[in-house]
User: Fold this.
Amino acid sequence: MQVLIIEDEFHAVQYLSGLLRDLIPELTILATIDTVEDAVEWFKTNAAPELVFMDIQLADGLSFDIFKHVEVSAPVIFTTAFDQYTLRAFKLNSIDYLLKPVEPEELQAALAKYSKYHQTQTLTTDWQQLLANLPIHQNDAYRQRFLTKQGKSLTYLLTDDIAYLYSDEGITFAIDKQGKRFVIDATIDRLHTELDPKDFFRINRGQIIHVKSIQQIDSWFSHRLKLKLSPHNEQHEHVVSRDRVKDFKGWLDH
Assistant:
């Protein structure tokens, strides 16, 4: 079987590849791709694989965008960390999806489903129609909450309760609306793709803010902008980098 993997997490690629090789010794992985842009280019220049495993959240956006730019004739099994009921639409159209971390039993069942349709040649999907008929907007695929550790206990933080996030010496922190700090197990680069851009904006390389946290916007040196956020913390300076100012203004004026 010839398989294409579209996934932007290295460890997830390694894990899925290992599971697939255990289940299908004769498996050939044609390529592993981590962006929408590269996936579109791959489909334009290569013959269709027998099966595609596709993460929903990629480095440069949602994998759904791939279908807007290129025809995908191969069957797709989606993988996602988000248990969103909107994805039931894919099940109804002979498409499966797996929740991360992928369980071997679930993967085997998905492969069996693919094999059934492959043998009978009844798997036909109008992707444009399928995407148009999703019952909820694709924004629902964005991160809704984070599991965090507070002392010896585990708790969760809703994204709606986050005022801003920042990186400090390789550790990512979230500040909630009450000023409480949480450690987040994700990089700013990763969070930039996981958080809903309607509410969150990356103002510089190390900070992401929520629109409702903005209290004041002032002009700053070198054509930058300085923000006053709520909750206010004098230890944190929030400056929109010069190359992000235009996009920041457009985001607020959207």
Q: What stands out?
A: Confidence is low (pLDDT under 50) at residues 135-139. Residues 2-141 form a domain with the Rossmann fold fold (CATH 3.40.50.2300). The CA atoms of residues 201 and 208 lie 5 Å apart. Helices lie at 10-23, 36-45, 66-69, 88-92, 104-120, 127-132, 188-194, 245-252.
